[in-house]
């Protein structure tokens, strides 16, 4: 579709998850998804709705026969949304990751906040979040394990 944006979501189906900051649990969910959200240079608001649509339509939850056939909308679950610039780690120059491809926080924070607002609109009361820019301790029990990297560059060019 010619979008010039490359947002990434790392989606992990979970039995439970939490975010702790400075020894205090700031968010906690039961069954659902922990979603790490990353933005890169060139990202803007244009792709957020399309990525949310794709995220919510992913058929990764087991149906009654145990097949991965159900989207998030068909389960009684929650989402834990965590901003994570390290999704854009670049190791092409050696063994120490570079993060020059990650969108700087002054630009990514407003996009992440927009993402959170739109998610809450779609899933009222079912979205929880980490604290942008904080030193977060994220815990989750990955179910399956089931992990998917959703990259807008691959999906929409």
Description of the structure:
There is one protein chain. This protein has 157 residues and is α/β, with parallel strands linked by helices. Helix content is 21%, strand content 36%. The protein has 3 helices and 8 strands. The chain has helices spanning 48-57, 105-122, 152-156; strands at residues 8-21, 24-29, 32-38, 61-62, 68-70, 78-83, 127-129, 136-151. Strands 1, 2, 3, 6, 7 and 8 form a 6-stranded mixed sheet that branches. Strands 4-5 form a two-stranded antiparallel ribbon. The longest helix has 18 residues, at 105-122. The protein is globular and about 45 Å long. The termini are close together.
Uncertain segments of ≥5 residues (pLDDT<50)?
Answer: none
Helix-strand topology string? EEEHEEEHEEH
Structure classification:
alpha/beta
Quote the average pLDDT. 91
Strand content: 35-45%
Helix content: 10-25%
Count the DSSP helices: 3
Please give the radius of gyration in angstroms: 15 Å
Number of strands: 8
Largest sheet: 6 strands, mixed
Separation of the first and last Cα atoms: 6 Å
Gross geometry: globular
